[in-house]
Amino acid sequence: MNDRVLVTGFKPFLGETINPSEVLLEEIRKDFAVSKNVDTLVLPVSFGKAFAVLEEQLNKKSYRYVFLLGQAGDRDKVCFERVGLNWIETQKPDEDGFTPQQGPIAAQEAPALFSRLPLSEWSDALRAQGLPVKVSLSAGGYVCNQVYFKALQKLQSETGAGVVFIHVPYLPEQVQNKAPGTPFLDLETQKKTLYSVLNRYVK
């Protein structure tokens, strides 16, 4: 396997006009243009389509590392998700207007899959640099977690690729009309944090 890296993000959803994960992909495309080993991919916020779009890309190219980015509006730190749960649980519809029933993603499969990447090591190193990061237990019960679980299931079993889901906070412009105290994190800090991880693996 080569050292090619894939970074994904999501389109805006639930009434938002931007998604910080998509904005970060735009920055990556500019700043890592000198590297031929980094690909980016924007996913729809759709239970029926998101993993299909990702899987199509994974079937085209072989990746050593896959970094899945998504927005978490209740977070004030960049969060490395340790576990992909084999479970869907949400009251929020996806971009297709579909709200799934609560239940497992894949019947008869493991209840959860763990990232094999050194998330605690990353977190310790980045916090020592003063960056706002933490390891979070799971990616929740929405589309992001469904994609994470399926990606772990496919890649860790088939190719041994390193996979992690990284949740990022709102950007400042997203909270202007939200309740006072809604957490956010500026783009430059989000970039610095993410790039500190990517630069470990981009050749």
UniProtKB/TrEMBL annotation:
<dbReference type="GO" id="GO:0016920">
    <property type="term" value="F:pyroglutamyl-peptidase activity"/>
</dbReference>
<keyword id="KW-0963">Cytoplasm</keyword>
<protein>
    <recommendedName>
        <fullName>Pyroglutamyl-peptidase I</fullName>
        <ecNumber>3.4.19.3</ecNumber>
    </recommendedName>
</protein>
<dbReference type="InterPro" id="IPR033694">
    <property type="entry name" value="PGPEP1_Cys_AS"/>
</dbReference>
<dbReference type="GO" id="GO:0006508">
    <property type="term" value="P:proteolysis"/>
</dbReference>
<dbReference type="InterPro" id="IPR036440">
    <property type="entry name" value="Peptidase_C15-like_sf"/>
</dbReference>
<feature type="active site">
    <location>
        <position position="144"/>
    </location>
</feature>
<dbReference type="InterPro" id="IPR000816">
    <property type="entry name" value="Peptidase_C15"/>
</dbReference>
<keyword id="KW-0378">Hydrolase</keyword>
<keyword id="KW-0645">Protease</keyword>
<comment type="similarity">
    <text>Belongs to the peptidase C15 family.</text>
</comment>
<dbReference type="InterPro" id="IPR016125">
    <property type="entry name" value="Peptidase_C15-like"/>
</dbReference>
<dbReference type="Pfam" id="PF01470">
    <property type="entry name" value="Peptidase_C15"/>
</dbReference>
<dbReference type="GO" id="GO:0005829">
    <property type="term" value="C:cytosol"/>
</dbReference>
<keyword id="KW-0788">Thiol protease</keyword>
